[in-house]
Amino acid sequence: MTHPPLWSLAPLLGFLMFVASACGEASQLAETDGPKAQLVFDTDSSVSRFDSRLVESTAKAARDYYAKELGRDFESEVTVRITDDDGGDRWLGWSAGRKLWIYTGNERWPDDSSIEAHYLKENIVAHELFHNFEWSLADSIDGDSDRLPFWLLEGGAEYASAHYLAEIYEVDWPDMVAYYKVRPEEASTRLEDVRVGTPSDYSKAFQAINALMGDRPLRDLGAFFEATGRTEWDDAFRQTFHQDPAKFLDAFEATFE
Ligand SMILES: [Zn+2]
Question: How many angstroms does the Cα of residue 93 sit away from the middle of ligand 1?
Answer without folding.
Answer: 8
